[in-house]
Write a structure and sequence with these properties.
Helix content: 55-70%
Oligomer: single chain
Number of domains: 1
CATH superfamily: Tetratricopeptide repeat domain
Strand content: under 5%
Distance between the termini: 87 Å
Mean pLDDT: 91
Structural class: mainly alpha
């Protein structure tokens, strides 16, 4: 055939991955290592540790989150919920009470009301 183009050949073989993918927790730990005061990264790591059942790491990351970012309202709510789930009710009450104040100061009435409801449920 005149003018016919040769048919292109493509390499369709899939190469195996040589590097293992990091877990979500490892990725978040790297974010926190790179920027230890980044509230969103620390919050994500705390939630991931809680989800994985690593209560000590979750608690530590929530504490560090609120130490470095005392205005991070979502941290109070999630940490309070976490503490209640693991049976640390007095700490949960204190934290949710602090969270109500933080939310009020931030003008976040929705978060304030959620924490107030969670606090009332613990009494």
């Amino acid at each position: 055939m005149l003018g016919a183009r040769p048919q292109a050949r493509y390499n369709t073989r899939i190469q195996p991955m040589t590097q293992t993918q990091k877990s979500r927790r490892e990725v978040l730990e790297q974010f926190v290592a790179d920027k230890p005061t980044d509230a969103f990264a620390r919050y994500g790591l705390a939630l991931e540790c809680a989800k994985l059942g690593d209560d000590a790491a979750a608690s530590e990351n929530f504490k560090k989150l609120l130490e470095t970012n005392p205005g991070y309202v979502a941290g109070y709510f999630q940490f309070g919920q976490f503490l209640a789930r693991v049976g640390r009710l007095d700490e949960a009450r204190k934290l949710l009470s602090d969270g109500v104040v933080a939310a009020q100061n931030a003008g976040d009435m929705h978060a304030r009301d959620e924490m107030q409801a969670a606090l009332s449920a613990l009494r």
